[in-house]
C-alpha cells in the first residue's frame, strides 16, 4: 500500500540508519521503488538549493546524489573542497554557515571524521545554522544511503529480509558499509555472517553475526556482500598480495559456481577486480553491482525527500 504525504518519513537531517524503524525502512524502499517505476516527483512552488560536499573521493555517491537532486527538481550549487576556503582554514561549520547565508537549504556531506555532523546539528543558542544535513559517509562510521540502496536491492530480489543468510566479506575494520548494513540487516531479521582476514574481524562485530571461512559459507548464503580492501585507510600495508587475498578470501569463479541458484552478489564499489571478486563476475548473472548503483539514485531521492518534508522546504503544491 502506497504511503500518502502525511504518512511519509519526515526528518530534519539524514545522518545514520541507527534510529530508523523497520516500517520507516520499508517506507523508504517503497518510495524509491515508486520513483524507479517512473512515479511523479512532488512539484515544489519554491526553489530548493543543495550543495554536495565531498571531502573524501567519490564517484557513485557524489554523482548519484546529484542525479537524485536533479530528478527532484532541486538546484545544485557546485562546491569543490580543493578550491574552497576550507583550504584557508575555514571550519566545516563556518563553510556551511556561508552556504546557508547565500540560500542553500540542504548539504550532502562526505567526511573522513566519524560523526563530523555533531558540530553541525548540536547548536548552542548563538548558532543559527538552518540546513538539512545528509550524511554521504563519515569516516568508518556510517554510510546510510549505501545501506538503504543495499536493502532496496536485497528486497527487490527476495521481497523480504527475515531469515535471509547474508555474508559480509572483507575489510570489515574500515567499512562504514559493513557497520551500516549489519545493523539494519539484523534489525530486519536477516542472519549475518562475516568472513575475510580474521584480523579485520573484532569483538565489535560479534553481536551482529558469526565469523566463518569463505569456503564454509559460500554455498549457504542468499546474499554475499564483498567489501573493498581500503588500502588508503591502512596504517601500514604489510606486504598485501592481491593474488593471495583473492585465492583465500575472494569470490573466485569456483566459489561463484557453488552459490545457491537465487543467491546474489553485492559490492559497494569501487571494485578491485581480481581481488574481492574475479573480474568476469562483476557483470555475472548473480551480480547486482550495476543494479545497486541504479537503485542508489531512487533511494537517494527518497532520502532527500524525507528531509525536504521534515524541514517543510519547497512549499509542495
Ligand atoms: N559506494 C561508494 O560509496 O562509492 P563511492 O566512494 O564511489 O561514492
UniProtKB/TrEMBL annotation:
The keyword Metal-binding is assigned to this record: no
Residues in Aspartate/ornithine carbamoyltransferase carbamoyl-P binding domain copies: 12-156
Pathway where it operates: Pyrimidine metabolism; UMP biosynthesis via de novo pathway; (S)-dihydroorotate from bicarbonate: step 2/3
GO process annotations (BP): 'de novo' pyrimidine nucleobase biosynthetic process; 'de novo' UMP biosynthetic process; amino acid metabolic process
GO CC entries: cytosol
Gene Ontology terms for molecular function: amino acid binding; aspartate carbamoyltransferase activity
Catalytic activity: carbamoyl phosphate + L-aspartate = N-carbamoyl-L-aspartate + phosphate + H(+)
SUPFAM superfamilies: Aspartate/ornithine carbamoyltransferase
Record-listed carbamoyl phosphate binding positions: 60-61, 110, 143, 146, 269-270
A UniProt-annotated Pfam family: OTCace_N
Record's keyword terms, sorted: Pyrimidine biosynthesis, Transferase
Domain Aspartate/ornithine carbamoyltransferase Asp/Orn-binding: 162-305
Enzyme class: transferase
E.C. number(s) listed in UniProt: 2.1.3.2
InterPro entries per the UniProt record, alphabetical: Asp/Orn_carbamoyltranf_P-bd, Asp/Orn_carbamoylTrfase, Asp/Orn_carbamoylTrfase_sf, Asp_carbamoyltransf, Asp_carbamoyltransf_Asp/Orn-bd
Binding-site list for L-aspartate: 88, 176, 228
Matches recorded under HAMAP family: Asp_carb_tr
Family listed: Belongs to the aspartate/ornithine carbamoyltransferase superfamily. ATCase family.
Assembly and binders: Heterododecamer (2C3:3R2) of six catalytic PyrB chains organized as two trimers (C3), and six regulatory PyrI chains organized as three dimers (R2).
Task of the protein: Catalyzes the condensation of carbamoyl phosphate and aspartate to form carbamoyl aspartate and inorganic phosphate, the committed step in the de novo pyrimidine nucleotide biosynthesis pathway.
Name the UniProt record assigns to this protein: Aspartate carbamoyltransferase
Organism name: Liquorilactobacillus aquaticus DSM 21051
Amino acid at each position: 500500500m502506497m504511503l500518502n504525504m502525511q504518512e511519509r518519513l519526515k526528518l530534519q537531517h539524514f545522518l545514520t540508519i541507527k534510529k530508523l524503524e523497520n516500517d520507516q525502512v520499508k517506507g523508504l524502499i517503497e518510495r524509491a521503488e515508486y520513483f524507479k517505476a517512473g512515479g511523479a516527483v512532488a512539484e515544489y512552488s519554491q526553489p530548493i538549493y543543495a550543495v554536495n560536499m565531498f571531502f573524501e573521493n567519490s564517484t557513485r555517491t557524489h554523482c548519484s546524489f546529484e542525479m537524485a537532486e536533479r530528478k527532484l527538481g532541486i538546484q545544485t550549487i557546485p562546491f569543490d573542497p580543493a578550491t574552497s576556503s576550507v583550504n584557508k582554514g575555514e571550519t566545516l561549520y563556518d563553510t556551511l554557515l556561508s552556504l546557508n547565508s547565500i540560500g542553500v537549504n540542504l548539504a550532502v556531506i562526505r567526511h573522513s571524521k566519524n560523526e563530523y555532523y555533531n558540530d553541525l546539528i548540536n547548536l548552542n543558542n548563538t548558532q543559527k545554522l538552518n540546513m538539512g544535513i545528509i550524511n554521504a559517509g563519515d569516516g568508518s562510521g556510517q554510510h546510510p544511503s549505501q545501506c538503504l540502496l543495499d536493502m532496496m536491492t536485497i528486497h527487490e530480489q527476495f521481497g523480504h529480509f527475515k531469515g535471509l543468510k547474508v555474508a559480509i566479506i572483507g575489510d570489515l575494520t574500515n567499512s562504514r558499509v559493513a557497520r551500516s548494513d549489519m545493523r539494519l540487516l539484523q534489525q530486519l531479521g536477516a542472519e549475518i555472517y562475516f568472513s575475510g582476514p580474521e584480523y579485520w574481524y573484532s569483538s565489535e562485530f560479534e553481536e551482529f553475526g558469526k565469523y566463518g571461512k569463505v569456503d564454509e559459507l559460500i554455498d549457504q548464503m542468499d546474499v554475499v556482500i564483498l567489501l573493498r580492501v581500503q588500502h588508503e585507510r591502512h596504517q601500514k600495508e604489510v606486504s598485501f598480495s592481491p593474488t593471495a587475498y583473492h585465492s583465500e578470501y575472494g569470490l573466485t569463479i569456483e566459489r561463484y559456481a557453488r552459490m545457491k541458484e537465487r543467491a546474489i552478489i553485492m559490492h559497494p564499489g569501487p571494485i578491485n577486480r581480481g581481488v574481492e571478486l574475479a573480474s568476469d563476475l562483476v557483470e555475472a548473472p548473480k551480480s547486482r553491482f550495476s543494479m545497486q548503483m541504479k537503485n542508489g539514485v531512487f533511494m537517494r531521492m527518497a532520502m532527500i525527500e524525507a528531509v525536504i518534508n521534515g524541514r517543510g522546504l519547497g512549499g509542495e503544491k
